Amino acid sequence: MKKMKLYIDNNEVEVMEGTTILEAAQGLNITIPTLCHHEDLCIAGNCRVCVVEVEGSEMLSAACATPVSTGMRIKTNSLKVRDSRRTIIDMLLSEHAGECVTCQRSGNCELQTLAVLYGSPDNHLMDISIKTEPDRSSSSIIKDDSKCIKCQRCVRTCQEIQKIGALTMSGKGEHAKVSTFFELPLNTVVCTNCGQCVIRCPTGALVERTYIDEVWDVIGNSDVHTVVQTAPAVRVGLGEALGHDAGGRFTGQMVSALRKLGFDAVFDTNFTADLTIIEEGSELLNRLTNVIKGSGEALLPMFTSCSPGWIKFIEHQFPHLLGHLSTCKSPQQMFGALAKTRWSEKAQIEPEKISSISIMPCTAKKFEAARPEMNDSGYRDVDYVLTTRELAKMIKQAGIDFDKLDESECDSLLGKHSGAAVIFGATGGVMEAAIRTVYELVTGRPVPFENLNITAVRGMEGIREATLRIEGTVEKYNFLEGVELKVAVAHGLKNANAIMELVSQGSAPWHFVEVMACPGGCLSGGGQPIPTSPEIREARARAIYEEDESLPIRKSHENPEITRIYEEFLTDGPCGHKSHHLLHTHYTPRR
Fold first, then answer.
1. What digits encode the pLDDT tens for the residues 556-588?
2. Residues 101, 200 within the same domain
3. Which residues are catalytic?
4. In the sheet where 302-303 sits, what is the strand order?
5. Do the Cβ atoms of 209 and 140 come closer than 8 Å?
6. Mean pLDDT score across all residues of the chain
7. Whether 98 and 178 share a structural domain
8. CATH number of the domain enclosing 108
9. How many domains does the chain have?
């Protein structure tokens, strides 16, 4: 490819052939406004907010969709350009149900920002907005067509990144709209509740279903004992929602904030992430044993079951392969079951008086908590799920100066965790944590990787593979001597689909596969701060791994509280009768 020299606002720039005007301008630190454009998605060029003036052309050009050419002279801020942008934004506003004061995206809405910068101070266009009743059928996501600007980011996200197609465009011209199959409610279509559409929507047309008021109610009820858990990805996302740059770690301040909000007990989902590794690792070893010894039926590869969006995806798209899923509940749901049993017992509080709340980076966790299967304690495992964004809002509502909070630690019993649990927040993290434990259980030695970092399963490639040869086994597992354990990691449901096709064809070579519904894993979940980008995801991942390396315990089986819970509560051991009742589940084929 050859380089091309051009001029943008009289600034000379040299870029590679195929570069768009938008990309070339970014190289000069010139901001061209966009709405339909997102760097994770294909070029659409349908909003026209990014128009620029190209010398020699009568028509304005969409900067996001126009490749540069040698000698091109471009104006990004001419009178013609500014007038066009103003007209386009005014037209969008005339069709948009303006409820900025009460909209969840107020203050973080791209249309609102552009309206302030470019819109008419007194928009004379007729208000032709049509207020429609939002679709609140989903326990995770609210869809409000009256706030939609038809940029189609959500449609492209659902089709390109997730390969689901739950959202599509229907109608033409003034009747065009983002719709579902036969315009059915979200809770009846193939939506996986992943929320990737939410974090790419530029307005409030797609938002998470919020439970903030319900949580305030239980906090304020003296008859209710509130227990809160926080997922690993929240601590590397919360700072962004409170004004910090991406990549900061705020674990200690987050714990202090939760106490100031009024929660009675503050715990860490990382504890049950460690517990998940013990249960899931034991299940994997049981399946391998049955296959190698021929002592029973076992479906391989075994899939991780931590990501609820992935679970719903396989229920819809590959129900005949549900037997490959680990029966383990996710760490969120394991914690909920233990809160209403183990914690209830130790704290001497009746389980019906406990309200279990989780702070998650994921909108699909709201759906997961509402699943009818999740009540093995005799009570609903998790009562309310809040996203990282919702927690940030509660902190602001309470008037807490987050930056001045001292660091504190989670309560004991369900709060201590290892570095292996922390990396659950990044794609490949569950696999790496599992290998650290399973390899040591089988061989009696730590994994043969420098500083326990299994880099082969890290990174942002869509599908990653690794092979680990098992050598020097302990007597119990001597039948595994020389076995090459083959694993794979996939993130984003498009990549998961590719894995599942191979399994369906019987040509998958792996023993163990980790799947996360969201690109980058939980750190880029649908409940994380907006916006998202490859750079933001990389920064959060670095923070996750830094926290892992900073902890004194980095293997799940070395967590003393995990040892204690098996000694005192789950006394028949991993995958035993009691743990299977409380910590394992089944899943449902869906149409």
1. 999 999 999 999 999 999 999 999 999 999 999
2. yes
3. 280, 283, 306, 326, 365, 368, 373, 522
4. 302-303, 512-516, 484-491, 463-469
5. yes
6. 95
7. yes
8. 3.30.70.20
9. 4
